[in-house]
Amino acid sequence: MAKDPVERFLAALDPDHREAIGAKPREEQEQLAAAWERELESDDELDTLDELSPPAAEAEAARRVLNREAG
């Protein structure tokens, strides 16, 4: 498993978003990855999902972060 938060965040994204975010500057990727990690740590609903499917929890947190950024 990738230890770098940006790599983990990119891996949680769907392929289209992965490509788009991967093209952004590293600093922006790091900010998004930090927001993603905060989302994973702070949301109790994701904790429950993480117990059932860690990849699904990571993907849901990534989706939420991208939705906030777009909005």
From TrEMBL:
* Skewed-composition ranges (Basic and acidic residues): 14-29, 60-71
Q: Where is this region: Disordered?
A: 10-71
Q: Where is the composition biased (Acidic residues)?
A: 40-50
Q: What is this protein called?
A: Addiction module protein
Originating species:
Streptomyces tricolor
